[in-house]
Amino acid sequence: MKRTPCLIFIALFVLQAPCQAGFLDSLSQEILPPSKQQSSLDTNVVVKGLKEALATGTEKAVAAVSRPDGYFRNQLIKILLPRKIQQVADVAAQIGFQQQVDTFVLSMNRAAEKAAPQAARYFGNAIRQMTVEDAKQILNGGDTAATTFFEKKTRAQLFEAFKPSVTTAMNQVGTARAYKELIGKYEATPLAAFSGKPSLDLDEYVTNKALDGLFLMVAEEEKKIRKDPAARTTDLLRKVFGGK
Predict the structure, then answer these.
(1) Interhelix angle 98-115/202-227, nearest 10 degrees
(2) Model confidence at 243: pLDDT above 60
(3) By C-alpha distance, which of 135, 122, 126, 78 is closest to 102?
(4) What is the pLDDT of residues 135-166, one digit of tens each?
(5) pLDDT in tens, 164-176
(6) HSE of 144 in the Cβ direction (CA atoms, 13 Å)?
(7) Residues 6+ apart with CB under 8 A from 203
(8) Residue 46 to residue 130: CA distance in whole angstroms
(9) Tell me: the pLDDT tens digits for 43-100?
(10) Residue (of 198, 150, 170) closest to 54 by Cα position
(11) CB-based burial of residue 57 (10 Å sphere; 0-12 exposed, 13-18 middle, 19+ buried)?
(12) Maximal C-alpha separation, the chain
């Protein structure tokens, strides 16, 4: 039986087993009626499965980062102090203001968590607008090819959508106030007279870090769906990606 690119894609998604002709043949027999195995239906079925996988993965990723501590308690994506501010924080902590440093870090992560839910709409639009050519590139790509697709299609839009939300959220959770207090403590030290006040676009920094963390979590969900049968939570995902 001729192996289409779509069937090659399916083989990449099964457990981590090597590609074998017998498996591919039996899977195609199950998904497609014999009379249509050489038609465009095979592409449609697998692309549908791909879209469902993307919807499942992005939904889980957005939910994971949007909950309280979604960023703050996840060491993979926790937003840390920018290097420009780390010296300020170190000095402030040494003179008894560790609490202000901790509050600043927590508030940045809380702002990201508040902004994150709106990402679902942009991911959904990208999935609906995905072309067959887009699907082929994802199918022929690596373990995070879909994440790369999402970042290319949505990062600029998400930045524009996230930044005002991050700004609002930072005001609500006290990020700007915590930052000003931290800088104020630093400026009162002798070191500030020599090094000057650090310059930072806080809104831009937190927005970019929030997006970095979001796409990292999308990548983690994509890897699970490709490799872990337990992550295939619908009949279509199990059928297309598990051969069951």
Answers:
(1) 60
(2) no
(3) 78
(4) 878 877 788 999 999 999 999 999 999 999 99
(5) 999 998 888 888 7
(6) 11
(7) 163, 166, 167, 170
(8) 13
(9) 777 778 788 888 888 999 999 999 999 999 999 999 998 887 887 778 777 777 788 7
(10) 150
(11) buried
(12) 82
The residue assigned the tokens 């040494």 is 94
Give the CB-side neighbour count of residue 45, counting CA atoms within 13 A.
25
Compute the distance between CA of residue 5 and CA of residue 156 in angstroms, rounded to an integer: 31
Please name which of 34, 35, 17 lies closest in space to residue 25, comparing C-alpha atoms: 34
Structural contact between residues 49 and 240, judged by C-beta atoms closer than 8 angstroms: yes
User: Which token pair is 107?
Assistant: 């508030």
Rounded distance between C-alpha atoms, residue 31 and residue 244, angstroms: 10
DSSP state of 155: H
CB pairs under 8 A, 24+ apart, for 123-128?
Answer: 123/54, 123/55, 123/58, 123/62, 123/150, 123/154, 123/218, 124/55, 124/58, 125/154, 126/150, 126/153, 126/154, 127/51, 127/54, 127/55, 127/58
Copy the structure tokens of residue 204: 């831009």
User: Please, what's the b/e burial string for 96-111 (b: 16 or more CB within 10 A of its CB; e: otherwise)?
Assistant: ebeebbebbbbbbbbb
CA 242 to chain centre: 24
